[in-house]
Amino acid sequence: MKILLVEDDEMIGESIQIALESENLSVDWVKDGMQAEAALATRPYDAMLLDLGLPYRDGVDILRKLRAEGNAMPVLVLTARDTVAEKVHGLRSGADDYLVKPFDLDELIARLEALMRRVRGGFERVYRNGDVMVHIDTREVQLAGRQVMLSAREWEILEALVLRPGAILSREQLEKRLYGWSGEVESNAIEVYIHGLRKKLGQQIVINVRGLGYMVGKT
Fold this sequence. Notes:
By secondary structure, this protein is of the alpha/beta class. It has helices spanning about 10-20, 35-40, 60-70, 85-90, 105-120, 150-160, 170-180, 190-200; strands spanning about 1-5, 25-30, 45-50, 75-80, 95-100, 125-130, 130-135, 140-145, 145-150, 205-210, 215. The chain starts with a strand and ends with a strand. The mean pLDDT is about 85.
């Protein structure tokens, strides 16, 4: 799962990132409202952890815009705004759950897991294309019934594509997926990992749309 963490406090953000990654969750951490909006426009996320008191753009404004655009991604609000009225305001603005600072990291993880279970309704997300089957939630990939092992970055690219079958993702979007918002981008990384995916799963799995980017076919 890919989580967007929006938190401007360095100590809190770093602690959350470490805790989530220890649970094998992939985390993009941004530190202000404008970065959050840019991240949301770049790629889909499975869930967002959202602080409300952010530089440049208030968290409630980000939440309202997300819901106005029809994005139903689960959002767990993390904030020091602890009055009943403020909690109600956050929930009515589109939050799925609300956790007041300071909080226990184990409770944060438990609430996030519960939120994801409710959203999915117990159904596993699966992408099928010919002999290729991708179990998105368990990260299991099969070719003609046999398990195929992918590197972490091959999986990141494949997941980004199969979450939006039929949609073209640009090279820049895929680079953001691999390197987040702070990593140094290797010049030919996307081509290398797509070559690896095609070698393992067949040339047809990733389609190159010349001049635009890459996609996988709709199922």
